[in-house]
Specification:
- The structure holds 2 protein chains of 2 kinds.
- Chain A is mainly α.
- Chain A contains 4 helices and 2 strands, in the order ββαααα.
- Chain A has a two-stranded antiparallel ribbon.
- Chain B is of the alpha/beta class.
- Chain B folds into 2 domains: about 230 residues, FAD/NAD(P)-binding domain (3-Layer(bba) Sandwich), CATH 3.50.50; about 130 residues, FAD/NAD(P)-binding domain (3-Layer(bba) Sandwich), CATH 3.50.50.60.
- Helices cover about 30% and strands about 30% of the residues of chain B.
- Chain B has 9 helices and 19 strands.
- In chain B, the strands form 5 sheets. In chain B, strands 1, 2, 3, 4, 5, 6 and 19 form a 7-stranded mixed beta sheet that branches. A 5-stranded parallel beta sheet of chain B has the order 8-15-9-10-11. In chain B, strands 12-13-14 form a 3-stranded antiparallel beta sheet, with no helix packed on it.
- In chain B, a hairpin with a 6-residue loop joins β12 and β13.
- In chain B, α3 runs parallel beside α4 and α4 runs parallel beside α5.
- Chain B starts with a strand and ends in a 7-residue tail after the last helix.
- The chains are: A mainly alpha, B alpha/beta.
- The interface between A and B is large, with 44 and 56 residues.
Amino acid sequence: MGGAKKEVIVCRCEEITIDEIREWIDRGCDTINELKRILRVGMGPCQGRGCHDIILRELSRWLGTPIDQIEAGTVRPPVKPIKTGLLASEGGEPAWSGKTGQTS
Amino acid sequence: MTDISTDILVVGGGAAGLSAAAEAASCGADVLIVEGDLRLGGQLVKQTHKFFGSRDEYAGTRGYKIADILLDEIRENEGKVKALTNTTVTGYYIEDKTFTAMRGEDSCARIKARRTIVATGASERLIPFPNNDLPGVYGAGAVQTLMNVYGVTPGRRVLMVGAGNIGLIVSYQMTQAGVEVAAVVEAMPKIGGYWVHAAKIRRLGIPILLRHSVKEALGERVVEGAVIMELDDKFNPTGLERTIECDVICLAVGLSPTTEILSHAGCRMRYVPELCGSVAERDRTMRTSNPDFWSAGDAMGIEEASAAMVEGRIAGLCAADSLGLPAKMEKLDEYWARLNRLRAGEVGAKIRSGIGKVSRDEWEV
């Protein structure tokens, strides 16, 4: 304990710290989309489910703008990682059965 | 690639989605539920406590039994409802009006639906503090899943962060499972959850420390303790700190609506703090600005499972009606009366205010 400054991870997927986010907001990247492009925050396996809200609150605090007026980031498919091999194989094998799984 | 088509696609098989599916099927719609988890039921399957509210929403019944009741109702509509579990709707492509879905990690399908009900629920909110990535830092929902679904305790001694209903209930359930709860800390000056839940854990001698939060996690490779700090009225640290010995820090600091599919569908969204995130504008039928899309439950704003089930009923009824099926639309008023009862009084003030910001009487063409 003590000694070196401890890291505060905001985006666990891409291992981005709060200091990095603050640094880049300070340098003018004051939207979610810009921060994504610079740092890849929210672009890992969870697609921002863990960090998006924390970053919104940081932006709100830094800009002095209420959180409901912060520009939303772009949301694109897919919502979770898909293997490129699966896409390349046109959906994988075998084809889903016609009965679409179990009847509940 | 497999192609699937359905009258009504329900994305998410939790409290809202199962209610929507049951209602739509009872009107004669063919319904497909797509659920990412291995089983249907969503958060209901791990709720071992009895629900509050009114009898219409199964008050007095334990959550996991409510899931069984909804599944029984769905089975009564023989053959109308199909479900795909272990399957995630990964996207909606508005230009083709087509969904993609992935089962497990090894096969994909395209889904076409005449109507869609998004009941994707919520994800757990996290808060930033030093060493928050150490093993032993959990979301409270994750702890509840570990214990009540898989029968695994998270650790030996826990610091609970957050005295809302989830923090209080999970603290009690951990104690039932033989895990010691060192303390519950809550940044607000008052307990957020129902007092009956708070009273249960106070009777067990667990301290609830208001105006306190976690400052940092201690430990090299795993959590070995936590420093907690006192906060003033503006949530700034007063300087008063102490160390709690624990091997688990459990975060029950709120949920955020899961809304990606609604965004893909171009539904008009707005960030509403009272509903805990970005949510879709909706009319009285739970329809969004995309006329093919309805939504219900936590995806439309964080609330209780009871309200999610009624919203699901509304979405299922109205989506079926829009297909020209014989939906008993007079039920809509009854469902709204139930929702209004659930949202009445001081407890519902925040929800009512939030919903007011995203409710639309009609949609501009």
